[in-house]
Amino acid sequence: MRFNEDLIKWTKHSSLIHWIQEMVKLCRPDQVHLCDGSQEEHESVCAQMVRSGTFIPLNEQKRPGSFWCHSDPNDVARVEDATFICSKRKEDAGPTNNWKDPEEMKKMLLGLFSGCMRGRTLYVIPFSMGPLGSPSSRIGVQVTDSPYVVASMYIMTRMGRSALKALGEENFVPCLHSVGVPLEPGQKDVSWPCSSTHKYIVHFPEERSIMSYGSGYGGNALLGKKCLALRIASVIGRDEGWLAEHMLILGLTSPQGEKKYFAAAFPSACGKTNLAMLKSELPGWKFECVGDDIAWMRFDQDGSLRAINPEAGFFGVAPGTSFKSNPNAMLAIAKNSIFTNVALTLDHDVWWEGMTDTPPAQLTSWLGKPWTPNDQTKAAHPNARFTAPAKQCPVMDPAWEDPKGVPISGLIFGGRRSSVTPLVCESFNWEHGVFLGASLSSEITAAAAGEIGKQRHDPFAMLPFCGYNMGDYFAHWLELGKKHPGPKLPKIFYVNWFRKGTDGKFLWPGFGENARVLKWIFERVKGQDNADVTPIGLIPKKDALDFSGLKLSQEALQELFDVKPEEWRKEVEDLRKYFSIFKDRLPSGITDQLSQLESRLK
Ligand code: GTP
Ligand code: SPV
Ligand code: MN
Fold it and tell me: Rounded to whole angstroms, how far apart are CA atoms 320 and 303?
């Protein structure tokens, strides 16, 4: 292969050159493609996937520059059971992560990767997480045999030559990825290659590298996202004194023109994208989007917590997205987007459950089969996703690519809880807020393979994404609050859009109506005296939440804010049991908060 000549023209970074040569030797592809990140390259990669049958182009009149594809039915979500944090010591991965000795894991993986790209092209993708040239950004280089990943990384990151330039002589995060399906001579490829036997999503936090094998889907395969920007970045953040979080970032402007920024952590498929680009049902309140999934935050010299969105696109849950629930997402995906595991209409547009009240009469389902509304199955997979450039969202914040980031006034945690936790509450202080984050639990959604609907603890919405011991992670949060006390330290809130009434229906209309809750949060951050003290935190005073024009029964309102001491005492017992898994890594700040909550409930 004559790629070596191209390689030295492409970069002068000697350890990068060396690493790529090693990966080529290991994976033995037929070809090597060094990505330049141009639009022409993107178009040619997409055109090649159309020819190979992976992509179906969508109707140019309805959705220009866009493609439909469906995955293998065994490759539809993140695989948490197959996700590993391979720190040298098991205790450093902690009780919430899968762990294996890094040397053993590497040995096993090198076996799998050996010759795994035979018959395929190895693509090299340099990418920047964060705006190009921001001191907060990080550069990764992904080697992959999946053109779907190349096309997706073009949308989700700043990739190609510009990222190489930003890298300069610095260190990069090596990200090795293969779908794990070598092709023998003459063997015909399938439209979504993935390994049916081996899937491994592996992180080496000490050497800050990633190896992912066997899956081509989302967070398993687009290694800049969960692997680098959360698992590896959380480790870097711990060491350097900043935070990598599973959070949206939004700007909120009041009718008086005052603006504040908030970041919010909800578990996967629990409402980040929807809140990040919310169309307010409250007149005069304007929401603008900085990011919908990941926030990197650090305190500046003035003591403000500043956040950047490391991503350049959205990989959002399609089902439930409509012009009613999230018009700004619908506008963002009007063109230049990839749709995976949604349904395809007869005229080559897309559809999913919740997009319209009645489905089209005939569709191709996410399985690639004919589908009619009489079918008992869903036309789109519940974790079907769109991949769209952030800049196409009409409500992107003017500062969304500001290398300095935006100043955060409030942090919000939330999960799917059908009972117990109220619509909104505010923590008494930073330590109590960290405790609220640590206490987060939520129902499992289709974003990960597993038991959907089951309640589980998901501290800070980071259970699947924290690259080190979660007990140390709690301590890191507590520590940052101690180091940066004062009026600029963000206030911390907890919300629950998903509480259900005795009829089993959501009590709260959600979506655009969530603006009412954010308005109260905005006022609290400004210091308005409109909260009542309860044992679990501060909740809105009677009439402090703006319900104007909203039809909500007195009973529903009552239930949304009901704090039942007996339920909360059970919650305390459950949390005590849960926190005990962290043993000596659980900071005393968390135990103290739990005891204080217990005594307030007496
Ligand atoms: P990830 O991309 O997996 O991290 O998820 P996310 O947190 O961005 O979730 P997203 O906003 O895509 O929401 C996922 C699901 O929750 C969709 O089916 C939405 O329709 C639903 N949802 C979002 N906001 C609300 C809300 O306020 N109320 C209710 N009832 N459902 C909501
Ligand atoms: C999530 O699961 O939280 C996602 C989707 O945002 S994925 O990128 O597949 O992890
Ligand atoms: Mn996510």
Answer: 39
> Is residue 473 within 8 Å of 234, Cβ to Cβ?
yes
**Ligand 1 center from residue 319 Cα (angstroms):** 9
Beta-strand relationship, 441-443 and 537-540: unpaired
Q: Please tell me the distance between residue 221's alpha carbon and the centre of ligand 3 in angstroms.
A: 14
Q: List every span in the chain annotated with CATH 3.90.228.20.
A: 244-313+397-601
Task: Determine the residue of 315, 317, 321, 338 to mutate for testing ligand 2's pocket, defined as the one with the most ligand atoms within 8 A of the Cβ atom.
Answer: 315
Count CA atoms closer than 13 A to 276's CA, side-chain side: 32
Rounded distance between C-alpha atoms, residue 403 and residue 484, angstroms: 22
pLDDT in tens, 23-76: 999 999 999 999 999 999 999 999 999 999 999 999 999 999 999 999 999 999
DSSP characters over 415-432 = ---SSSS-SEEE-SSHHH
**Helical H runs in 270-421?**
272-276, 327-332
Domain 244-313+397-601 CATH assignment equals 1.10.10.60 = no
Q: Is 426 in contact with 409 (CB distance < 8 Å)? A: no
DSSP sequence for 462-508: -TTT--S-HHHHHHHHHHHHHHS-STTSPEEEEE-TT-B-TTSSBSS
Please report, in angstroms and rounded to a whole number, the separation of the first and last CA atoms in the chain: 74
CATH 3.40.449.10 intervals, the chain: 2-241
Give residues (CB < 6 A) around ligand 2: 78, 218-219, 225-226, 268, 293, 315, 447
CA distance 528 to 514: 19
Q: How confident is the model at residue 2 (pLDDT cuts 50, 70, 90)?
A: confident
Compute the C-alpha angle 88/92/96, nearest 5°: 120
Domain 2-241 is in which class? alpha beta
User: Which tokens go with 527?
Assistant: 């210091």
- Residue 221 dihedral angles phi and psi, to the nearest 5°: -125, -30
